[in-house]
Specification:
The chain has about 400 residues and is α/β, with parallel strands linked by helices. The chain has 2 domains: about 5-105, 2-Layer Sandwich (Enolase-like, domain 1); about 105-345 and about 370-385, Enolase-like C-terminal domain (TIM Barrel, Alpha-Beta Barrel), CATH 3.20.20.120. Helix content is about 40%, strand content about 15%. The protein has a 5-stranded parallel beta sheet. Helix 5 packs parallel to helix 6, helix 7 packs parallel to helix 8 and helix 10 (about 270-285) packs across helix 11. The protein is globular and about 60 Å long.
């Protein structure tokens, strides 16, 4: 069964744009991957087309050989663009193999160790600005069934944090903590905002609210500085979404930079690469909690990795999304007791309707993280994707 075409598709999802890739074969079986790379969608789509020069005409089942060849032939290898493109193609090839053999992907890689994976909610706070608004949104997320809530309460801060912004951030954390009151985990996102002394001050503040982790306290690029924050923090540190491949995780583990590993199935290079990183983390007795804020195909692929590894501790889930996600994607998973079930249909258990996607063409989106509009990540008609 040979690969005949590799086609990227881009569609608006308000926060950013989804980038899906369809790999087709001469036997009529096709597979879906995802390369959603925020704010660089056309760049990664072109990288997918370039991979086609190596992949088209090859055996669709030779997944590892194809991955190795593409990785070798990108001379300036690594980085978010090519690893995301390669990860998307790899996902699609596993989807094809699973469909051809009539098995879910996890069955091809050793079988599942669980039927579902505990999830925490991101994007539950859409539209909130003030602490009381975050508190009300938290109540809704708890009612839906989530056992963990993650958010960034730091407004437009970058590097430093003024006393006024620190006070408001603490008020926000306190308001949500009062609502949760031990019924769900609090996880605080930093989005790589702070310098070392500010990150330590923030960690000290968060310690008072039984926070499960402080995520990405520093900008990426200096593992020793991150390790310094970890040593000085009284709460666990999570990081790793902006590392691209198992090779970049070697110095990460050597530096003892974090307590939780957050590799992303897209940006790390696909299903097998995420599994390898989870295994590397297990050898260091560090839990893997995959970064998973993108779209339905990446979510399905990450669920299959969660099925394969007891070291995948919990999974990020975008609790709300655009109303047209259900129109664009058919997803074979259910939300039960704060967890997503592992798909058991052949392949990845997800399909994309390209005609529906075409109704929502690319819209240029800008980074919101540091301009005070981070919570404007959903339109007003957004809804919870998965409900109990």
């Amino acid at each position: 069964m040979k690969i005949t075409s590799i086609t990227p598709y881009i569609g608006d999802c308000f926060r950013t744009n989804w980038v899906f890739v369809k790999v087709e074969t001469d036997e009529g079986i096709y597979g879906w991957g995802e390369a959603s790379l925020e704010y660089r969608e056309h760049t990664v789509a072109e990288a997918i087309r370039e991979i086609g020069r190596t992949a088209i005409g090859r055996e669709a089942g030779d997944i590892q050989a194809l991955w190795d060849d593409v990785n070798r032939e990108v001379y300036y290898r690594g980085g978010p663009v090519y690893m995301s493109a390669l990860g998307a193609v790899e996902m699609a090839l596993w989807d094809i193999k699973g469909k051809a053999l009539g098995k879910p992907v996890y069955e091809l890689l050793g079988g599942k160790v669980r039927d579902s994976i505990q999830c925490y909610a991101n994007a539950w706070f859409a539209g909130a600005r003030e602490p009381e608004e975050f508190a009300e949104k938290a109540r809704v997320a708890l009612d839906v069934g989530y056992k963990g809530l993650k958010w960034d309460p730091f407004g437009s801060a970058y590097y430093d944090l003024s006393p006024q912004v620190m006070k408001k951030a603490e008020a926000c954390v306190a308001a949500v903590a009062e609502v949760v009151d031990g019924t769900a985990e609090l996880l605080i996102e930093g989005h790589g905002r702070f310098n070392v002394p500010t990150a330590v001050r923030v960690a000290d503040m968060l310690y008072n609210y039984n926070v499960g982790w402080f995520e990405e306290p520093l900008p990426p690029g200096n593992l020793e500085a991150l390790a310094d924050v970890r040593r000085r923090s009284r709460i666990p540190i999570a990081a790793g979404e902006r590392l691209y491949s198992r090779w970049e995780y070697v110095p990460f583990f050597e530096a003892k930079a974090a307590d939780f590993v957050q590799a992303d199935v897209i940006h790390a290079g696909g299903i097998l690469e995420l599994r390898r990183i989870a295994d590397m983390a297990e050898a260091h007795f560090i839990p893997c909690c995959p970064h998973n804020p993108c779209g339905p195909v990446a979510n399905a692929a990450t669920l299959h990795v969660a099925a394969l590894s007891n070291n995948v501790m919990r999974l990020e889930t975008m609790a709300t999304d655009v109303s047209w996600r259900k129109e664009v994607a058919k997803e074979d998973t259910k939300f039960e007791n704060g967890a997503l079930t592992i798909p058991d249909t052949p392949g990845l258990g997800v399909d994309i309707d390209v005609e529906a996607l075409a109704k929502y063409p690319f819209v240029a989106r800008d980074l919101r993280h540091y301009n005070g509009t981070l919570t404007d990540i959903r339109p007003k008609d957004s809804e919870f994707i998965f409900k109990k």
